């Protein structure tokens, strides 16, 4: 603990911020995790703060990103999920029950999903769980690793949907509506195996959004695994699905099995590396293209001659 404190003090971070992060992550936390948490909190080395604040009299609240009055806290700004990764909204109840084989509310499953998106670089991650999951577990609703919910709540990742008791009966707000609404407003991705059919029928805009932005998943030996093709075989890849600016793959031609011995010429539909300028057109299309070019050129010459 002392060695990590001295290490980050040499980097220029404040002792209060370092102690706060070490208390939240624990003594066994890796240096990379501590550094990520310091950056997420908005803490900066003293050298960077002195460059950003030329005047020593200007006071800046600890954890803020800049000195401008309109600055927002990290975790709530739309741009903090980076310029190319979409915000993530996780259906906590669905993920926890799926990890617990629909018998136990396993909070460890939520942690696995959050860690998976953190490793990819997503910074805006929200998990929605009903408030009554804070209560002690009962026989009809067992909960495992309930302390994880408290840790995620301290990190401003977990959000409890409201609930209360009226005359001994629990009144629960519909948490699915929170999930879809926040994901729709943030233009993000919903992580759940639920199809939200009732909300699709309620709002046509939500219907399109749920169909195009729902990321399903599976747990394989305590490993969170979303599919590589979230929208089917002919849809985008997982990387493009989670990105705001998808990258289109370059067309890849299948090489010809005959190689240089191929006798099909331009009729061959396969790729020949020895013919870099080979047009991938059929013979009929190539002849049409050659015929249309001189006709169009002749018409342009006639127009030029007729013009005064």
TrEMBL record:
GO terms for molecular function: hydrolase activity; mRNA binding; RNA endonuclease activity; zinc ion binding. Its cofactor is Mg(2+). GO terms for cellular component: cytoplasmic ribonucleoprotein granule; nucleus. Residues 250-275 form the C3H1-type domain. Keywords: Endonuclease, Hydrolase, Magnesium, Metal-binding, Nuclease, Zinc, Zinc-finger. A zinc finger (C3H1-type) spans 250-275. Belongs to the ZC3H12 family. PANTHER family: N4BP1-RELATED, RIBONUCLEASE ZC3H12D-RELATED. This is Putative ribonuclease ZC3H12D.
């Amino acid at each position: 603990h002392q060695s990590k404190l001295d290490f980050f003090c040499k980097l220029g971070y404040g002792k209060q911020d370092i102690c706060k992060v070490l208390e939240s992550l624990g003594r066994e936390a890796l240096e990379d995790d501590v550094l990520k948490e310091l950056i997420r909190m908005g803490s900066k080395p003293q050298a960077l703060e002195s460059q950003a604040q030329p005047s020593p009299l200007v006071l800046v609240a600890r954890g803020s990103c800049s000195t401008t009055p309109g600055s927002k806290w990290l975790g709530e700004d739309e741009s903090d999920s980076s310029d190319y990764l979409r915000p993530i909204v996780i259906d906590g109840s669905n993920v926890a029950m799926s990890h617990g084989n629909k018998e136990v509310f396993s909070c460890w499953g939520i942690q696995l999903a959050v860690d998976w998106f953190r490793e990819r670089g997503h910074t805006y991650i929200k998990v929605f769980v009903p408030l009554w999951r804070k209560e002690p577990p009962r026989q009809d609703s067992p909960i495992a690793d309930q302390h994880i919910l408290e840790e995620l709540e301290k990190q401003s990742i977990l959000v409890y949907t409201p609930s209360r008791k009226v005359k001994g009966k629990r009144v629960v707000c519909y948490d699915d509506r929170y999930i879809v609404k926040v994901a729709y407003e943030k233009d993000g991705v919903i992580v759940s195996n639920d199809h939200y059919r009732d909300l699709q029928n309620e709002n046509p805009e939500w219907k399109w959004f749920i169909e195009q932005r729902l990321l399903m998943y599976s747990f394989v030996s305590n490993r969170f695994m979303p599919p590589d093709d979230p929208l089917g075989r002919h849809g985008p890849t997982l990387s493009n699905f989670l990105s705001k600016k998808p990258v289109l793959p370059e067309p890849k031609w299948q090489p010809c099995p005959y190689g240089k011995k191929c006798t099909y010429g331009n009729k061959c539909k396969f790729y020949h590396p020895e013919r870099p300028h080979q047009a991938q057109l059929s013979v009929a299309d190539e002849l049409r293209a050659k015929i249309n070019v001189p006709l169009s050129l002749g018409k342009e010459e006639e127009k030029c001659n007729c013009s005064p």
